[in-house]
Amino acid sequence: MPSAPTADVRPGPSGSRSVLERRTGSIDGPRKPVEGPDRGAGDRRIPRFVWALPPVAVLALVFLYPLALVVQQSVSPDEGGTSLAPYGDVFASESFRSALTTTVWLAVGSTAGCLVLGFVLAMVIAFVPFPGGRAVARFIDVFLSFPSFLITLALLFIYGNAGMANGLWTDATGASSGPFDFLTTPWGVLLAEVTYFTPFVMRPLLAAFSQLDTAQLEVASSLGAGPARIVRQVILPDALPALAAGGSLVLVMCLNEFGIVLFTGAKGVTTLPMLVYSKAILESDYPAACVVAVVNIAISVGLYSLYRMVSRRVGA
Amino acid sequence: MTGGATGGIRFDQVSVAYGGNTVLDRLDLTVEPGEVMALLGPSGSGKTTALRAVAGFVQPASGRVYLGDRDVTGLPPHKRGIGMVVQQYALFPHMRVHDNVAFGLKARKAAKAEIPERVAEALELVGMAAYAERYPRELSGGQQQRVAIARALAIRPGVLLLDEPLSALDARLRSGMLAELARLHRELPDVSILYVTHDQVEALTLADRIAVMDKARLQDCGTPQELYRRPRTEFTASFVGNANLLPVTVADGADTVDFAGRALDVPTGEAAGGATATLCVRPHLVGLGDGPNALSGTIAEVQWRGSTHRLYVDVDGHRVKADLRELRETPALGDTVTLHFAAEDAVLLPAGTAPGTGGGAHA
Predict the structure, then answer these.
(1) Is B216's Cβ below 8 Å from some Cβ in A?
(2) B155 at the A interface (CB within 8 A)?
(3) Coil, helix or strand for B187?
(4) Does A171 touch chain B (CB under 8 A)?
(5) How large is the C-alpha radius of gyration of chain A?
(6) Which residues constitute the domain of residue A231?
(7) Which of A215, A224, A237 is the closest to B90 by Cβ?
(8) Within a domain: A241
(9) What's the pLDDT at B284?
(10) Closest in A1, A224, A226 to B155, CB measured
């Protein structure tokens, strides 16, 4: 017994000393070859930021430069010169205002739909064991890689004017047209966007649910909490960051969605990207198209910054 | 009492199977009101399944589970009124300590005015009143487990289920919490506690009775003293206290058995002459040197354990363990030594499974 205390103490200092030695060694070690004689004078080391220049240059060339061109075009009216006149014209036009409203409510509506549907589906997949549950989760990953217009096309086959649902109806009743013609309305776009974007919400949710300690759910129920209370007070708070991440992603993607709106063929539904398309391609009004594009970008970036701010505050 | 459950648990022929694999086989066990029952066994013995059947997380394939005199077999967990504490605490991470403790009270619709008082009372009971405003992540493991216990006790359950509550804590904290749990039980004498553990020390220290489980079945049940001093099966003898188990044949004479050609004097009870049996002797009751029931053999291994020396001695091919107060002169490997034990320290068990199963690691 008397020898025990010294035996306990001794490894301490010698252990920490060796850690120190190792640490200083690791600092000196790699630096020496860099400053070695084959590099010439020791001061000619390349600063770190130099390595960042090539990728930044490439990014600037392929991404920021065209963006700058768009902004420049938006302040260059056809009459020549540089003025904010195109902005005034576009903001005053009825088509822009209605497109802005349509875009925002479609995006907000679709996002809300995706959040609700995604939360429910993810919860079923994560917490209700059923055969094939894992396959469904796997399929969601695949679904994310599908192009958005594919969903619209599929919906067209089902609910379109010449689609399956209407075909069944006309065959059965002999009527000249079926009852389903919502696909060309905003509701059709909403349905398509909810269908397509829901997996984008489910993905982070499923990841969050797989981290959730099931013992928490069990303890909660043993304490007398029914399923509804467990969802509200245990699962939902845990899923909030994932919901925020998925929701904000979907919101931005919905704001910029073009393929779905185009493919539903809804003439009455003009969103900002559609407006850009029709101004630029159909009317050859490039300044106006660029103005709308700039507004679209501003909304996206603004929403993204808002999301970052909120998530940082929540996360802290 | 919002707990609703009166004390006491009764298993009536409870079987649980997962896909044809029986994990709990016809368990019959009664936990009296106010009693601490330890379910002790190795992993896979069915002890946790038994606890989960009481909580309602597994549905028995057959048999009934009673809380008090209420049949709860078909009742969902949230209607059973049970307090539960699990190994990894499972506190709700986004709630402060007092909200964690209040969770059960709110879920059970306790009167709003009553909740703060009951939360404070429960936190006081586990000595965590000063931490009510903290989040779980700001607490140490031992503190989190105290909060988890307060959360379970706040609903004033008649039955408290503890599922390996100390396994996640380090050894020093564990013995502190063990004393704490014993104190809690003294302060809450009406609560029945079902305590699942694989640690015999926890079971021996805390339990009024121990149910020893192995291979999905109840092997033995009794007070810690009974199980330790008079085990009824080889499994109990080796799992609780890691006893020496020696194959013997009962001699025709009174209170004598034959072990590898040696005659040993031990109480044979009602065992018939000529029957094979297992002799159980605790390692710490084996002495070094000549004496009654002497066994000589060669040293196979010596372990120094601080206050004791553990000797492994080969006696005609059978390994005998002896825990001796720290020796001044340690015998060397291969030395011939003589061990002995008193007749009243030996227990004769019916021969069953091979001696030594489940031993070794649990000393």
Answers:
(1) no
(2) yes
(3) helix
(4) no
(5) 29
(6) 86-313
(7) A215
(8) yes
(9) 92
(10) A224
In a domain, A58, yes or no: no
Sequence-separated (6 or more) residues with CB below 8 Å from residue B2: B81, B105, B108, B110, B155, B156
> What's the rounded Cα separation, in Å, for the pair A214 and B82?
18
**pLDDT averaged over every residue in chain A:** 80
> What does the pLDDT average to over A225-230?
93
How do beta strands B308-315 and B318-325 pair? antiparallel
Residue A238 Cα, gap to closest chain B Cα (Å): 7
How confident is the model over A144-196, as pLDDT tens digits? Answer: 888 888 888 888 888 877 778 888 888 888 777 777 777 778 888 898 899 99
Q: In angstroms, how far apart are the furthest CA atoms of chain A?
A: 102
A301 and chain B in contact, CB less than 8 A: no
- Judge whether A5 is closer than 8 Å to chain B, CB to CB: no
> Cβ–Cβ contacts within 10 Å for residue B32, how many?
14
ipTM: 0.82
**Residue B362: band (very low, low, confident or very high) from pLDDT cuts 50, 70, 90:** very low
Interface test mutation site (partner A, options B49, B94, B194, max chain A beta carbons within 10 A): B94
The mean pLDDT value for B267-293 works out to 88
Look at residue B210 and tell me whether its pLDDT is greater than 80: yes
Q: How far is B176 from chain A (nearest CA, A)?
A: 23
Whether A14 maps to a domain, the answer reads no
pLDDT at A107: 92
Number of structural domains found in chain A = 1
Asked, for residue A53, whether it belongs to a domain, the answer is no
Tell me the C-alpha distance between A151 and A298, whole Å. 28
Residue A306, classed as helix, strand or coil, is helix
- Contact between B222 and B210 under an 8 Å Cβ cutoff? The reply is yes
Least Cα separation, residue A119 to chain B (angstroms): 19
CA–CA distance, B18 with B34 (Å, rounded to integer)? 32
In which residue are the tokens 């029945």 written? B192
B92 at the A interface (CB within 8 A)?
yes
CATH of the domain at A272: 1.10.3720.10
Q: Is A212 helix (H, G, I), strand (E, B) or coil?
A: coil
Using one digit for the tens of pLDDT, what is the confidence trace for B217-236?
A: 999 999 999 999 888 888 99
Q: Give yes or no for residue A1 having a pLDDT over 50.
A: no
Residue of B nearest to A221 (CA): B78
Considering only A17-26, A259-268, B22-31, which range has the smallest mean pLDDT? A17-26
Q: Does A238 contact chain B (CB < 8 Å)?
A: yes
